[in-house]
Structure of Cytochrome c:
Amino acid sequence: MQKFSILLVLALIALACGGGENAPSEAPPTATNAAAKKDIDVKKIWKVRCIACHGLYGDMGTNGAANLQESEKPLEYRINIIKNGSENGVMTPFGDILSEDEIKAMAEYTMTFKKE
């Protein structure tokens, strides 16, 4: 009976460890899988990076920040401003801080503030 108990414990340990090196659950995620699963939390980025000047709803205008509720600027312009900063130097460039995907997501997010 003692041998059976030891064998049972070893079998349970083997099952808990995943059953082998080639098991699908053990494969590391590929770069494409990681990118596809990557969720960008634009609201979190907004609260950390943008809210101080633009406000919660994009209309605060602190330190000369643009009122995003009234802005008619297209997406590509917004991407450029977020990445490189504003022409007048009021807005800080975020190209070295945010990824390309995050910058695009943030530019798209700023367009949701438009008054309808």
In short: Confidence is low (pLDDT under 50) at residues 15-37. Helices lie at 2-16, 31-37, 42-54, 75-84, 100-110. The radius of gyration is 25 Å.
